[in-house]
Amino acid sequence: MALDRTSGFDMLVQISEEELNNQLETAFLAGGLFPSSMRMPINLNGIVGTANLNFNTPVADLDRPPTQMGLTVPFADSQLQITAPVALTLEPLGGIITIVDNIEMIATMGNRIAALDFNNGAPIVTLEFDAASQAILAPALATAGLTLLQTQNMMAGTVVQQLQTAIRRIDLTPPIPVVDDSNPTTIFSIEVTTVNDTTAIDRDCITFGIRMANDSGGNIGGVTSSFIPAGSQSLVMMSNFWLLAKVLRPRVAEALNRPVTDFDTPFRLNRHIPAPGGRGTLTKLEARVEGNRVRVDCQVMASGTGWSAVSNITFFVDIALGNGSITITASTPSVDTDIDIEWWVWLVSLGLGDLFGGIIGAIVAAIVLSILETLGEGIANHLIAGVISAPYNLPAIPLGPIGGGITLNSVILDDLELHCSIIRSSSVPVKNQGSYSSLTGFTVDLDSGTIRSNVSPETDLIWNPSMGLSTNGPTGLTITGTSFDALTPVQISRLPLSGRDIPLQLIPVVLPPFFPFLEHEEVVFGIRTTKGRYAKVRAWRSILTGGELQLDWITYDTPVPQLDILDRWSVCERGQVTEFIRPDCSSCSSSPVRWCGEFEAWPKLMAFPVDYQWCLCGNILEEGEGNIATLQGSLSYKLTGRRLWIETEMGQSLDCELCVSAIDAKGVELFTCIHLLQPGIETRCRKCVPIATHTRIEIVPAEPMLSSWRPLITDETAMLKDQPANKKECETH
């Protein structure tokens, strides 16, 4: 049997660091896993302010002690705004945040999740500004009496607070069911560690050790190597002992209608039993992993009047993968017998065909069942056929640890290895996609798919038949040599996207193919739209229609810059209070008031520095202090960058709009408004709550005459006895 490399576990699942980062990048672009921006209040060591950080794609690294993972989060175009002890605005700032925490398995409702839990012991966080930011910070920090190290530590401490209160944890896997039962193909427990490969090829990986039953072993600390071969992203490794002893042995015993105790572990018959079909005696049956296949040895004895025979039979079971199917084939048996009878005659006469088919079917069950059930998706029992050379279509297998599933590439028995490709557990959603063709000029908004003849603020691309394609506003592009279908949003995000045009000569003129699916020459480019989304576009001109432009695009719904206004109102002065009672018994008080409003423009994913312009009640505001006229009277204000304070006169109502526009360092312009509606007379009422009426009930003795009255409801006999003789008598009484 091959050397057991699973460290005593029934299964090992390894995910490469490269694959982990591919998934992190996809999840980040989809707007999940880690926020694209963070607004952090700062109040440490007497320093008060706000940090506005815009993040780029996080990068995971496993070059650390076992179970630890580092997460490097770059930030750029960010801002640090300090309000005390001195007023400072420092921008644009960039650098990296490094977060180090332990990967652990968290129990939740019968499942296990591999996660970075930031509240199970504080993560180690460091923050370092880049050289350009340090130059910006140096003079301001010297004036404030702060050092660069103090500032970095202060912001790192704030990041820890945000991780523990806002993010709390990052899940690296979906919930993986665990079951305490006797089924060898369901997970009993799962442990996790990391492997820091210090060799030149640096094959770092996350490793999951899986036990299929409570009597299984495993030492997760013993996993110190990555077994993922070159060119693969992950590996599922099955223990030879588990495969033979826990899966094949009981299934073959059941097929032969024998107790499992007839077989020693991992898989060896320990007594003589009747051969299938009642012909002869099966004296030996053993299976073991040998090289890249399973070897099966059996011996059958038969005798009759005046004769006896012994036949030793050996065959191999091969497991192959190709074209999305798993194929189980048995080699031609090698038969050694002392009488001159063809091996296939013995095979048929002894009834071993069913046995071989059963063994092969059991191996199919071991592969298909254990992968599908073990990794969390259940199994369709009809996949087990028990026939030789039967192909089995293998759909995408849900891969418990990380990712949406695996696609099997190859299989190696030593231990049983399945070399896998990962199916992403998350994908970047599509915001818009479409096609358009025209001989004349047009513009297109890739975020909405709107085609126009003129340029608007939302326009991304402009087609000029005499010049080519050009961008509008902050839109940028990069031509790539990747085909349109192969270009991913992750690849687009890595492009500089700083180009402004594609000259006419770079857009090929081609003869359209007869079949639409055939490839032809075209220019393919990635683009960042005016709203900040990523898109891919391809363009070509048709020679049949005089150079008509054909444009195809897919725009991904990635996080985009946003602009909000935060508001807070308070009564800064109150006039004489008048109290009164309403007809509904409510007690009210009314008074003229002077309102104070505080407003802050809150940009998200905008590149600092940001230029703001405020408009209050139709009046453009100038920086500093001033007054404006409104339909309800005069308003005083104070404007400092993205913060605005306004005050009304005593008893003055306010009913108008407050708007702010912002243009960031990349030329992205956003605009938003809120409605201001504040009454000059503030009335507060308290509902009238009637006092509950309490009725006293006192029991007193009945008067003598009343005590002789008959009950209100009595039996029929008593009623007839007391009834008057006639109506007249009743009336007389």
UniProtKB/TrEMBL annotation:
Q: State the protein's name.
A: Uncharacterized protein
Query: Which organism's genome codes for this protein?
Result: Paenibacillus spongiae
